[in-house]
Specification:
The chain is an alpha+beta fold. Helices cover 34% and strands 21% of the residues. The strands form 6 sheets. The protein has a 6-stranded mixed β-sheet, covered by helices on one side. A 3-stranded antiparallel β-sheet has the order 7-8-11. It has a 3-stranded antiparallel β-sheet with strand order 14-17-18. The chain is elongated and about 70 Å long. The structure holds cobalt (II) ion (CO) (2 copies).
């Protein structure tokens, strides 16, 4: 943890940030090993450019600090909200933060915490520290990659178990519920990266479909997008299967998406732009005449969060580096008919992209997958 803090201080120096305020989330956990939930009571970790740390938190949570080796000074408040401003003031005085910008995570920091911080630091400007923090978490070490590999393994094992009972008439919700049970059974952490997507037939044409009471019928595609967690590190996988005899065009887009997924995974290399992965996958789909039906970016970074840097979109010039982890997930969606997405989790190595996911990718009949 100390080396992560050192890395952060270096990044804060590079970005000219005299202080950072974090509320509960993956970055706070990454830096300290502490787990808190976002709730109605504010919890804020302040870190100065000198590496001094102060944590403002409800008194009942203070015991968690005794379980870590980092030197973090706690400033607690009790159930009376009137005691909060004092805790914020004392923490800020303790760190002696200079009267300059305070970095926050733009997608995490809330109005609640900002009001208390603003009262304790009149005239202070808040700036987005996301670029500074993204650099920190983007490159994973071997230990983090092994956790992600395990999260992928848990997810794959769970899917095979969940699909065993699939039959005509089962609803998307029923299959999704089975999958959640199997994910926990296979060893996933209790907090799944996201609620699994199970989409039958025409529903698979919606990339963010939510499981419904739609019942499975012969001729349906079955799209499943799911993931597991291992000590906070996540997997995020999509496979599409056939159930009975499906429309030949769906088989055709299945083959194209498979080629696009392969092309994307073959294109990524350390030193190349993140956008090159998107371009390679997108080219396959546009050459087949389906560019209008590939309606999202090719992937996103994955780690402690299901969506993080680096984002895999066409114009992204961010240079890929060894240890970066992200998804490759091209798709083709035909409204009213169905959609196919094939999503793998990959890590950048000396040799190119290594896939952490290895479940068969082709548009197989569900029963063939279970036999394979
Ligand atoms: Co996904
Ligand atoms: Co994804």
């Amino acid at each position: 943890m100390r080396s992560r803090i050192e890395k952060l201080l270096q990044a804060m120096d590079d970005f000219g940030l005299p202080g950072i305020a974090l509320n509960p989330g993956p970055t706070l956990t990454y830096l300290t090993g502490l787990h808190f939930h976002l709730m109605e009571r504010p919890t804020v970790l302040l870190i100065s450019a000198e590496g001094e740390m102060a944590l403002i938190l409800p008194a009942l949570e203070a015991g968690k600090l005794s379980k870590i080796s980092l030197d973090i000074h706690a400033f607690t408040y009790d159930d009376d909200p009137e005691t909060r401003p004092g805790a914020f003031r004392n923490a800020i005085e303790h760190l002696d933060l200079p009267g300059e910008d305070l970095g926050v995570e733009s997608t995490r920091m809330r109005f609640l915490e900002m009001v208390y911080l603003g009262e304790a630091l009149p005239g202070r400007a808040f700036v987005d520290a996301s670029p500074c923090l993204a650099d920190l978490r983007m490159i994973k070490n071997q230990n983090e990659i092994e956790k992600m590999r395990h999260a992928a393994h848990i997810a794959q094992t769970a899917l095979l178990a969940a699909l065993k009972g699939v039959q005509v008439g089962m609803t998307e919700k029923e299959v999704a519920n089975q999958l959640i049970i199997q994910l926990l059974q296979a060893g996933s952490g209790p907090e799944l990266p996201f609620a699994p997507i199970v989409a039958f037939g025409e529903n698979s044409a919606n990339p963010h479909s939510v499981p419904t009471d739609r019942a499975l019928q012969p001729g349906d595609l079955v799209l499943v997008d799911w993931g597991a967690s291992c000590e906070g590190y996540l997997s995020d996988i999509t496979r599409t299967f056939t159930f009975g005899t499906v429309d030949p065009e769906l088989l055709k887009i299945g083959e194209i998406v498979l080629q696009a997924n392969r092309a994307g995974r073959a294109a990524g290399k350390a030193g190349l732009a993140a956008g090159s992965v998107d371009q390679a996958a997108r080219l396959v789909i546009s050459q087949a005449g389906y560019d209008e039906a590939f309606i999202h970016r090719t992937g996103h970074g994955l780690g402690l969060e299901a969506h993080e840097e680096p984002y895999i979109f066409e114009g992204n010039s961010l240079e890929l580096g060894i240890g970066m982890t992200f998804t490759v997930e091209p798709g083709i969606y035909l409204a009213g008919k169905g959609g196919v997405r094939i999503e793998d989790d990959v890590v950048v190595t000396e040799k190119g992209l290594e896939s952490l996911t290895d479940l068969p990718r082709a548009l197989l009949p569900v029963e063939d997958l279970l036999e394979a």
